[in-house]
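User: Structure tokens for both sequences below?

Assistant:
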Amino acid sequence: MAVNKIAIISALPDEVDVFKKILHGSDKWDDKEVKVAIGGIGKVAAAATTQKIISEFKPDLLFFTGMAGALEEEREIGDLGIVSACIDSDYDARRFDPSLKRGQFPFTGERVIKSDSKLVDLALHSPINARVFDAYEATSSTFMDNEKKKEFVENVCPELEDEIRGQMRRPNLVDMECVGFLTAAKANYIPALALKTVSNTLKGDTRFEYSDSLMNERTRAYLDIVAYLMHNY
């Protein structure tokens, strides 16, 4: 498909500033028309912003970039998660229907929301010099400090296990927006990908690491990946 228009959404101004610096007030990036938006924090904000951009701008590709917390010990600040799938870890209808799993919706059976598989493959195998990894992301409305993340890994992640790209996996990232973004993209049949940089580790001080990451250029690796994808999709 021809890619002429791309949209890039982030939750916070700091997460999208790297793209604004490239654009210098223009709506063009090389030969592409680009819309950059600050979506706000949370699933609802992400979904509403994504839908508004789709309705008004009609992009060929959608990207959600920003930061996320690591849920496995080997992840370091600056590692870039290519989010192949995400799940709403807050959603639980098991008391309504005991046959359901955590994060699974009744009637439709839908549970895991996936990024566009071609975008995922291209990003994971791009020539960009970054520490990329295949991410399965839990979206939660709770900001988790170090103690809460460890509790989440032990008690919640086992309940979120699902088949991701042919393997049974548990989430290895957590954020607050991905489910809203990918749900809106899927509903409109727009190829979409979330790219999340690790801003806080499983073993460090979450609040300190997050604040420090805002000033760390390693957390901006998603810029080069987006540039590669928009020219090679």
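Moving on to the next sequence.
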Amino acid sequence: MKFVFRADANESIGIGHVMRCLSLAEALQEKGHSSVFAMKTPSGLLTNKIISNGHELQILKTPHTGSGLTELANNESQLSATNQIADAHLFLSSIKGTRPEWVIVDHYALDCDWHKCVQPYCNNLMVIDDLINREMHCQVLLNQNLGTKNLHYRKLSPNTQKFMIGPKYALLRKEFSLVRSASLKRREQLEVRKVLLTMGGADQSNYTIRALKKLEGAEISKNLSFQVMIGPSYSHLDGLYEFCQNSKLSVEIHRDPLNIAHLMKNADVCIGAAGSTIWECCCLGLPAIVVSTAENQNKVLKSLIENVCSVGSTVNQIPNDLEKLFYNRTLLKNLVHNSKVICDGLGAKRVVRVLENCT
């Protein structure tokens, strides 16, 4: 079967949409299906990642500066119906009149106006969402976030036939399920020595440096080593390297690493944003100190705190929360247990089964 993904990534909106679509494309590829990515202005690193993994890339050419379509390339504000239909026509022209089994949309700016325009030209349409803030028209809807319920979508997406809700369906690459057992075994040590810091693939506001500066002045940091993971759209690289070269912290930088699951497995604590990476931490039972770096992460963070899966924090509080985990083995044990039970890393395979059975 042929699957076409509509998602974007850049410094402003991050790379999370595309990365989770890539995880699903990987699972589809294992079952013999093909995937096409239709995107605006992808970075060179993302382009290489898509193509090197055996997927096709269609770059949607924005007509001219100042149009609503240019807007869509740079942020995720919901577009007018007119601009959504223009984008839908641009999308349809890019797939050259073929009729894919599935179109999968992971974009906050697109709603039912876009879906209804594209629907006649594909057999099925799936939406990946986090916000629960707009009307949708699709056969299947996925929201992988903790605390979301089907009823939240009853009025927004009344025609949807199948809902996939919660971290059970989190779209993780297979490497996480493969190292899960070894990672959970490591958690039995209940110690804090190695800390992984990751604030998202783009981190436009540079929470990475802000957190490191707070940690540099903390007494607890003398006992720790730090692994800093940054994504392909991170734009503060020179400043990060300069800081680390002059810092008293024991710190190592990993730019767009291929072995993310192993970095997480070998860490004792993760300091990160409340984006898609948190489900990777949960899969590996990695205790996390979590900061909301965008408004759309607030609900996720609230649910993580309520379920005692992570420690909710702010940049200023990170050193204190890290010290709390360093000395509190009971809290560490609870975080490991509560996080590992909500996500097993097999979500992409479950989604593939649903999509295959819906055709």
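User: Anything stand out in the second?

Assistant: The mean pLDDT is 92.
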